[in-house]
Structure to design on (195 residues):
């Protein structure tokens, strides 16, 4: 009887280890700007690789499952630049989820610095130095580097079967200037509300 219980417990553990944080249901990119190389999910983490052929954006869609409720999901991504042109900025927008505290990091491969970055409950942005990122940058800590930290996604208020999405964008320079001014206004309004 004890041996059967051990086998059953091992089988349940194996099934639980394969449970996904959220089911990846696909992506959409504006006119082939980016592709999702791979999408991984575990019981508490979302991770994906993105490859951008040019400036643009890609939206990744996820389905909430029962094990997602009442927990935060760790989120990170490796974003590659296939264009050969510098990406001066990047942004992430959430729809149906929020960033939980503490905030994560945005970093590069070290050839170009992150000049500035910021976030709100449903978005984050970074501006890169030099000619812009020509190889890759990291949202969170996909390479398990010392000092870097994943972002956490809060799915409070979501129900099983509902969806949420993550949009990653590398805008053209003039679009980024508009984005920064919009985020500055949102930050000012949020600070004013909290006072």
């Amino acid at each position: 009887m004890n041996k059967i219980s051990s086998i059953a417990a091992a089988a349940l553990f194996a099934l639980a280890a394969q449970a996904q944080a959220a089911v990846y249901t696909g992506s959409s990119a504006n006119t082939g700007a980016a592709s999702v190389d791979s999408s991984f999910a575990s019981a508490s983490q979302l991770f994906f690789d993105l490859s951008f052929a040019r400036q643009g954006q890609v939206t990744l869609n996820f389905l909430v499952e029962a094990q997602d409720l009442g927990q935060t999901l760790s989120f990170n991504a490796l974003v590659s630049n296939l264009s050969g042109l510098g990406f001066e900025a990047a942004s992430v927008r959430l729809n149906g989820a929020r960033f939980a505290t503490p905030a994560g990091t945005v970093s590069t491969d070290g050839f170009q610095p992150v000049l500035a970055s910021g976030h709100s409950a449903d978005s984050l942005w970074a501006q890169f130095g030099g000619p812009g990122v020509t190889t890759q940058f990291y949202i969170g800590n996909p390479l398990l580097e010392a000092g870097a930290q994943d972002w956490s996604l809060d799915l409070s208020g979501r129900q099983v079967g509902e969806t949420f999405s993550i949009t990653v964008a590398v805008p053209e320079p003039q679009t980024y200037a508009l984005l920064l001014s919009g985020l500055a206004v949102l930050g000012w309004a949020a600070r004013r509300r909290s006072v």
Observations:
- Residues 1-18, 175-180 have pLDDT under 50 and may be disordered.
- The radius of gyration is 18 Å.
- Helices lie at 2-18, 173-194.
